[in-house]
Amino acid sequence: MPVVEMDEVVERKAGMKISDIFEKHGESRFRALEAQAVEEACKKTGAVLSLGGGALLDAACARAVQKSCIAVWLWASADESLSRLKGDSSRPLLKKPGKAKAARSLLSFRLPIYAICSDIAVGTEGKSAKKVAGLVMDETDIALQPAQKS
Asked: Which of the four CATH numbers 3.40.50.300, 3.30.70.360, 3.30.420.10, 3.30.70.1350 does domain 3-144 have?
């Protein structure tokens, strides 16, 4: 099954890196491009869509995902996420001083949206990519099973 990395789609369509979109056009322009790309991708079938953490902030984007996808939330704490991003300077919203506070604030704001939009949540802390993939497959198999009549 193909994996579509939505940030890469946005960069390809915009002809520039996400950090450049933020710098030259602002976050709102990036979010509009991202929502358009996600909505287009949701019309296709048979692919895994890898969304950025802010993609579901756009209501139309969230509706498209909820309507046509099994949404899997790969949960990690703000501290764990920052640890994984150590040395990565490509995250525009985390380029300011006080990264840890910013990450916690972003996660706190986004948690209810993730909870509403996701069909499955999988904790990723302390787990290998292989283990997480197995958990996602197991949970997806369960979600796709027909409801049992009692």
From this structure: 3.40.50.300
